[in-house]
Structure formats: structure tokens, C-alpha cells
């Protein structure tokens, strides 16, 4: 499969950015933030994972390592020798795996409500709840509602569930839970000095400020943390302009052109 044709590429700027989506996302599922991106200063490539978006039906493997390898292959096809990476949620793990595989090519990382390189611990009840989401739309809705602080309109929750169901294979969705929760590789990113911005949502109960401080800011001592007020786990939908402003301000500051 030609990975390049499965990527959504916008912009013609000299700063190159790979965008890796979350468990409920896909390449064209980044919400209203996309319309606010500076496409003169940046070029953005939004990649679908295996089993998602334009790669539905592709088959696996559905692993963080494979996402990272596909991201590097996409960068090669685009002719991007050096680039930054932005990862939402599960994509936060994947961007760090790219760093572990090819640190010399990575100019910066932006983790948006991101999974850390240590994985995410679950108790048995929580694991059963999240595991049910692959087959059950109501559970997907409950997870999105929980991770945004149970404060957002059901119209948006329903739309997020419909998008998730339409743009992911059940087999892939189920397998990626294990991938993002249980892939741990902290030792591989020790000592990295790449510029890192971590964006936490004020209303995110799982991957919020406290978790980011205990993981990302320990793993990357020079990392910057920005807390999005009035956002939970999906600031690209909840606070899109504020998110883009913070992200692009950081990337302009740290990326040479």
C-alpha cells in the first residue's frame, strides 16, 4: 500500500509536521483546529494508522512500533528529512517511538493529552470497561464523555462515536488499546534533549496535568507544559484556536527553517 496516498497533507510551509491521531481519531478527524493552522509557515501531514481512515481493511500489525515505522516511511515518501511530530492521546506514545527510532530526524514533539512512554495502568474494572468499546458504541460514548469531564453536549459525543465507528476497523480498534496502554519504552527515550511541549486538558481525568507532570515532565526534564482551560481530552474540538496558538507558537520557537 502506498502510504503517501493515505496521508492528508496541507500547507506549503518550510516547517514540516507529522500529525498522529488518537484511539478514537483518524487522519481527517482532527476537528475544527485544522482550519486555523498556518499553512504558509507549516506543512502538515495527517497519517492514518493501519485499520483506520483510508487504511481500513489494511490489516496489522496494530502496534505502536508499526505506527512509528509507517510515520518514518511517510516522511521518506514526502521527502522530509527532518520534521516535528504532534501526537494526540495514543499518538503521544507513537511520536515518542519515532524519536526512539530516529532521534536525529526529530526537531520537536508536541503531545496533546498524550499517552506517556510508560504506558497507561488500568485496574481490572477499568480494563474491562475500555475493552468493551471495540464492540459497543455506547461504551465508546461513555469513554469520550468520561475523558472530557462529563460536561459536553450529547450531540458532539454522538458525532464522535459515529466518526470512530465509520473510520476504524473493530479488529484494529481492539488491538490498539493493548498497544497504547501496555507499550512501555521509557528507557529508550532517556536523555533526549529534543524540545517537547505537553498539552494537558483541564477536565481530562486520566491524562491531565497531574499525569503529564508525573510522566512526560519526568521523562523530558526540559519539557514545557501547557494546560488548556475549558478542555478535556479533545482540545482540538473543545478549544481549537487556543490549541493551535500554543502549538504553533512553540514550533516556531524551536524549529529551524
UniProtKB/TrEMBL annotation:
The gene is catD. GO terms for molecular function: 3-oxoadipate enol-lactonase activity. It comes from Tepidimonas charontis. The keyword Methyltransferase does not apply. PANTHER family: HYDROLASE ALPHA/BETA FOLD FAMILY, PEROXISOMAL MEMBRANE PROTEIN LPX1. InterPro entries: AB_hydrolase_1, AB_hydrolase_fold, Carboxylesterase_BioH. It comes from the Bacteria. This is 3-oxoadipate enol-lactonase 2. Residues 17-238 form the AB hydrolase-1 domain. Its EC number is 3.1.1.24. Keywords: Hydrolase. The keyword Hydrolase applies. It holds the Pfam family Abhydrolase_1.
